[in-house]
Amino acid sequence: MPLLSSSRARRIFGGWSANVMQLLLALTQQIVLIPLFLKYWSSDTLSAWLTIFAAGSLVLAADAGLHAWSLNRFLAFKSKSGCDRRSSRYYGAIFQLFVCFTLLLAIVVLGICALVTPSRLLGFPAEADFDIAFVIMVLGSVVMLPSNLPSALYRARGLYGRIVRVQAVGTAIGQIGQIVGVVATGSLLVVVLAFVAGQIATAIFILFVDVRRQFPFLGHLRRRTSRISWRWTVGQFVGAFPFSVMNFAEVGLAYLSVLLIGIFVSDRIAIAQWGLTRTIANLLRGLCYQMTLPLAAELGHDHAIGARDSLQRLYARGSTILVLFASGTTAGLLAFWPDFFAIWTHGAIPTNAMLTITLLLGTCIAAPAILALSYANYSNRGSLLLWTKSTQLVIFLVMSFLLIPRLGPLGAAIALIASDLIAQSGILSFVILSETLRHPLRYVLLLAVMMVTIVASGAALGVVIRDVAPGTGLLHFAIECAVWLLAVALIASPLAHRPLRVRLIAALPG
User: Rg for the chain (alpha carbons), in Å?
Assistant: First the structure.
């Protein structure tokens, strides 16, 4: 039996190939640009940039759940007659709601920033242009929110690879602008402007050009759009509310922790340590989440049409691939993080080993639950998402206020990981697995054994290679990474044998 049908395989692997581009750009934004920034900025300015970037990313989760709600509506239309007509009418109506909500949120942001000075609240009173850069970043993120609507339509119609590629182009443009800006001026404000300009240009292209090319049935919206009623509007926000809580808990907590540390911790070095280490852990989590999006769209389709056997097979196989990726990546990061961090920061910021281990291992353990979250998001499990994500928010906030003043960044890491494991892995994932798989306990045990084996053996192999690899600095790091990757490829090479791979897939206890 093939792993996937040919059409489904093309959609999923097309999405993953687009995610590779997004991965490279994420690595550039969050890793490659950091040493460049440190060349022209002090550690205080870098901390200010990380805080501003976190605030902008936090706003992207503030669309009131309308993105996920509209995605589920578009998926529901696929199983009904007149799918294009229904989708077109709904798109026109919900777009008006997106625009009104964006305008309201922009007014609220301006009002808050007029009453509260961001630089004083977040601990950067001496940083020039912090306030204006902060406002530009936050408002830019607010303006981008309507582009979540066409993104939902792309994903519901199997074009997730297309939307990721378009967004990646905008990110690349913004990164080129950041490089030119920091080299030419060294200004934090110029870097923020370059980042925001690339994002807004992409949103405009998607909203007014590309979506109408990909979906011609939207071409008559201007003539057919009617005024939306208050009753309908309230219904949309009520349906979207669980997804709003999910968005904030999933995307917002990591960035909210940066802001909380800025409030409770006065040590600029500790803030920089947290921002950089959390960036790597958040990147790992983000990559795992991106891997699940093509899978979740297919799972959502199977759920909508009642294809239970197909759903079970795809879920079991998809989560296995996710665990293999997360475990292997975590093993390499644990082994080579000290060398990488020293090169990354030019030795200007010391590493925090306990913080690194806590964040990376916690992120790896929580990785299998990311597929459960994505599937719940694409199968309209509003009540389940509301319950589990509300629990996660409460746990995080309580533990943060208790631990951050005492332990600093380590307290934030413990609060993040504990809330994630208790709520998402312990509650949401348990419910999804029980409803989806025939043998959920056996499958969880298999994934746990795989994870422990890969992380422990991969990290141990990396430590040995790091001790014997020749050279110093960047040369030493490049050699040890190359040798480790070669060794891992040799160990995994039996999986290239198709009969063995088919037997292993068939043995998965779905």
Answer: 23
